[in-house]
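Q: What residues go here?
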């Protein structure tokens, strides 16, 4: 949610601030702005909508200055209008903020009573007014920053410019991440290391409660009590990644087609292709773990649901799973003997992080299945399981989902070996199937596109779509529905096929396409019966199955997408491909903004 940047430079900063913000646009794109100090005067440019609008504004009215801060916004408080765009100004103070100030209403009342005039509907503006009041009371900049932070409740990554100090940026972190980049006679600040990649790969991460004073020679970091603290300076691996679309129209398309390659990379980390064994990567004795807690949000949660089927089936390990926003507040009784896994592409999702901390407080051993190895979730975990998908820029998660699945599958098989529920021969057979996955994915991606494009044109005319599946195809049905709704804005729901007759069947008529995900597995006949129920009510069935399923199903479908026959353990990853492509092409037909769909952000660092 929201991206922030800052540069204390020797050269003009405005172009570089915008360049860094472009790398953070995945965090929000409702509005953007930058502020600099030039000739002792603070000035800003802001624009509603995406960064191109800010760039256009800057072309008309350039901004000079060798120190500056910037922001790309995902609105929480206040409409996505220019007046609410950051940086917020008052009395020679400029502020950019990512997060939510939970006590802003109380602070705003207090500040208004003491004469402050608010010009925005944001929570952030209280930060600028608090600082201004402290400065008016004669308090020095550093002391004012410290005192202001002590008044805030909630989540924040902040960067502040004081007009009367054109050499320094102040910053603070409590929740959302903040990376400080060390340059050659220049210093940088950003919501992640990727934003700073064009300038430096030497990064210091602030931890919660830290605040910092940055000038072009370096950084001084303080903890929540104002004590000077040292945080390690490290060389970031995140910066090695190129972030471009290659020959693809959208990042999402590129990321879908990258899957065979990245899955193979991910698998290489967890399995030994020579002897077809799982590489033991976790220092938890699965044989002694009585159960496993899993938690995540959105697509990562749906990957976790599929993981639950695998851990329970292969390792006979009971799994407690919930979306993180519920998990953290359910007051689940947890035992310190248990282990917990948190799944997150970004590694920064606020609810997932809060669930992790809840489990940590209860003494559980914590594992993180993350794409960003330097993320907060990774850094706060006992064991990190990287999914190695590379940067995922499209807001709709695709390659991260299948890489999360690949890692969870390998871990479940490994847990099964440790618990004696998977024999050596079974392990080898399962691993051989996993190893087949990249090749089969490539084959599927090369063959299904024409059919999917045809189908997308029909789907784009629909108002609602139902997805059904059984077993691991049930969470996949939910993932199909999530993908379609988030980028095409068509209403879609995913249901367990067996649940149809308990309510959703009332929706079925000739206008309702029902996408059934049904590999020819042990549930196939039962799913066919559910399809019969749909057909009997005039519903239009789109069947996604394999060669055996296509031969066995005698149903009259509107379309059938036929995939190769695959082993059960890899079916979710293979069947994910047509549902991703279907959502993608439908959105393309409808002309929506595929990579940056409305109202969404890639990294959700607020509750
Ligand atoms: O970064 P995370 O994996 O923690 O993000 C979780 C969700 O916000 C994310 O999966 C979201 O649902 C995607 N936009 C789905 O495509």
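A:
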């Amino acid at each position: 949610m929201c991206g922030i940047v800052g540069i204390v430079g020797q050269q003009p900063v405005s172009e570089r601030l915008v360049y860094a913000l472009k790398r953070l646009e995945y965090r929000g794109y409702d509005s953007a702005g930058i502020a600099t100090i030039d000739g002792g005067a603070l000035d800003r440019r802001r624009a509603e909508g995406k960064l191109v609008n800010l760039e256009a504004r800057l072309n008309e009215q350039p901004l000079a200055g060798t120190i500056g801060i910037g922001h790309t916004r995902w609105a929480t408080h206040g409409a996505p209008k220019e007046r609410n765009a950051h940086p917020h100004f008052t009395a020679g103070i400029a502020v950019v903020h990512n997060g939510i100030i939970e006590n802003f209403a109380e602070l705003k009342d207090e500040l208004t009573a003491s004469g402050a005039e608010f010009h925005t509907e944001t929570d952030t503006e209280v930060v600028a007014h608090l600082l201004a009041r402290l400065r008016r009371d004669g308090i020095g900049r550093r002391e004012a920053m410290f005192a202001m932070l002590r008044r805030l409740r909630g989540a924040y990554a902040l960067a502040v410019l004081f007009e009367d100090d054109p050499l320094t940026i102040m910053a603070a972190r409590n929740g959302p991440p903040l990376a400080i980049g060390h340059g050659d006679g220049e210093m940088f600040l950003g919501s992640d290391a990727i934003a700073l990649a064009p300038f430096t790969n030497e990064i210091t991460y602030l931890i919660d409660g830290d605040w910092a004073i940055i000038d072009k020679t370096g950084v001084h970091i303080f903890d929540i009590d104002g004590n000077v603290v040292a945080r390690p300076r490290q060389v970031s691996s995140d910066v090695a990644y190129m972030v471009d679309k290659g020959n693809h129209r959208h990042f999402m398309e590129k990321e879908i087609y990258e899957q065979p390659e990245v899955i193979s990379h991910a698998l290489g980390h967890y399995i030994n292709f020579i002897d077809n064994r799982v590489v033991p990567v976790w220092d938890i004795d699965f044989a002694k773990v009585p159960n496993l807690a899993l938690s995540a949000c959105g697509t990562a949660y749906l990957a976790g649901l599929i993981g639950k089927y695998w851990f329970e089936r292969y390792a006979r390990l009971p799994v407690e799973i919930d979306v993180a926003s519920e998990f953290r507040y359910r007051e689940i009784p947890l035992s310190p003997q248990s282990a917990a896994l948190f799944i997150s592409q970004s590694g920064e999702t606020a609810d997932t992080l809060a669930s992790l901390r809840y489990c940590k407080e209860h003494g559980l051993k914590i594992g993180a299945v993350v794409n960003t190895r330097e993320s907060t979730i990774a850094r706060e975990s006992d064991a990190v399981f990287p999914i190695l998908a590379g940067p995922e820029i499209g807001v709709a998660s695709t390659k991260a989902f299948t890489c999360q699945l690949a890692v969870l599958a390998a871990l479940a098989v490994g847990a099964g070996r440790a618990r004696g529920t998977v024999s050596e021969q079974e392990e080898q057979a399962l691993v051989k199937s996993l190893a087949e996955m990249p090749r089969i994915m490539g084959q599927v991606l090369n063959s299904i596109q024409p059919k999917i494009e045809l189908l997308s044109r029909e789907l784009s005319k629909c108002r609602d779509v139902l997805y059904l599946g059984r077993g691991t195809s049930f969470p996949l049905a939910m993932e199909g529905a999530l993908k379609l709704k988030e980028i095409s804005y068509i209403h879609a729901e995913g249901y367990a096929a067996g649940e149809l007759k308990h309510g959703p069947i009332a929706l079925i008529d000739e206008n309702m396409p029902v996408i059934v995900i049904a590999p020819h597995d042990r549930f196939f006949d039962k799913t066919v019966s559910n399809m019969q129920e749909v057909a009997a009510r005039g519903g239009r069935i789109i069947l996604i199955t394999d060669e055996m399923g296509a031969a066995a199903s005698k149903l009259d479908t509107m379309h059938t997408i036929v995939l190769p026959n695959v082993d059960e353990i890899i079916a979710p990853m293979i069947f994910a491909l047509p549902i991703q492509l279907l959502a993608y092409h439908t959105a393309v037909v409808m002309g929506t903004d595929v990579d940056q769909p409305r109202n969404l952000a890639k990294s959700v660092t607020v509750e």
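A: Context that may help when evaluating the design: The longest strand covers residues 93-101. DSSP finds 19 helices and 27 strands in the chain.
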